[in-house]
Amino acid sequence: MGQQQSEYAEILLSCIEEKYFKNEIALEHHSFARIISGEMKVIQADKTYTFGPGQTLLFPRNQLSTLIKNPKHGLPYKAMVIFFTPKRLKDFYTKNPIQFTSPHLHKIKTFESHPLLESFFASLIPYFDLESDLPEKIVSIKIEEALTILRSIDATADNILADFSQPDKINLAQFMEKNYMFNLTIERFSYLTGRSLTTFKRDFKKEFNNTPQKWIIQKRLELAHYQLSEKKQKPIDVYLETGFENLSHFSFAFKKHFGYSPTELTCNR
After folding, report:
1. Mind listing the pLDDT tens digit for each residue in 221-256?
2. For residue 57, how far is the Cα from the chain centroid?
3. Is the CB of residue 16 less than 8 Å from the CB of residue 71?
4. With CB atoms 3.0 to 4.6 Å apart as the test, which of 8, 51, 70, 77 could cross-link to 16 if both were Cys?
């Protein structure tokens, strides 16, 4: 699914040649990407983005998102991606003073075509033909170049890149009601709500009088039932959107919860 070009997976070429690829993420590191061909749809709780060839984006860390990558116009989905680890960023900012301008809104940033961006991504292309790992020294240089370009073309870039804070403790009920359809571990949910795993489970029980696993499955099944009965969607279209890994697991869980299968519901409407 992805072509790793360095030992640390900090610079890579992502290539999807099949019909589509779906993944749910909350990236640990900021990522900087250029779409070469195909299309990527990013679905978040409050907004959906679609990116195509030639578009460049900065994806802040810890963004709960569903990514759908599609080949298009006879070409595979292909993108160059650079990950900015905290170590790289801290090393960079020891030599370059931070310039905060406004609070970081934790939103995806997109960039218009710019000569600095065009030349930078063009310079990466030959590296993906290497049969060996990209040397560490070159990885370091290219990441520093990427950071320098971002700060040059966007005066607010440091608000994202130089933010090393951990997630604050937030309203658990609001967060879960917004994001239950994302397939993350309970450990990841606890981290994103600013809690230890023990505190997360305790607060969750107090808020919902249920375990996280049981509550999440119930919410997904209720959403699926609504989409099948009210929006007249098909089971094959619903199970992915509601966070189930495959159609058979969805059908089994649905029938166990409601007493009838998704197919029986759609046939009787």
Report:
1. 999 999 899 888 888 888 877 888 788 999 999 999
2. 12
3. yes
4. 77
- The pLDDT of residue 7 is above 60: no
The per-residue pLDDT for range 76-120, each reduced to its tens digit, is: 999 999 999 999 999 999 999 998 887 766 789 999 999 999 999
Q: Pick from 28, 76, 79: which is nearest to 57 by CA?
A: 79
Q: Which two tokens stand for residue 119?
A: 């030349």
The order of strands in the sheet holding 65-70 is 21-25, 65-70, 39-43, 48-51
Task: Give the ranges where 64-135 is alpha helix by DSSP (H).
Answer: 86-95, 115-124
61/84 Cα distance (integer angstroms): 9
Give the C-alpha separation, 78 to 128, whole Å: 12
Q: 75 by DSSP, 3-state: which?
A: strand
Which DSSP symbol is given to 128?
G
State how far the Cα of 152 lies from the Cα of 48, in Å rounded to an integer.
Answer: 28
HSE-up of 72 (CA within 13 Å, CB side)? 16
Contact 56, 50 (CB under 8 A): no
What is the value of pTM for the model shown? 0.77
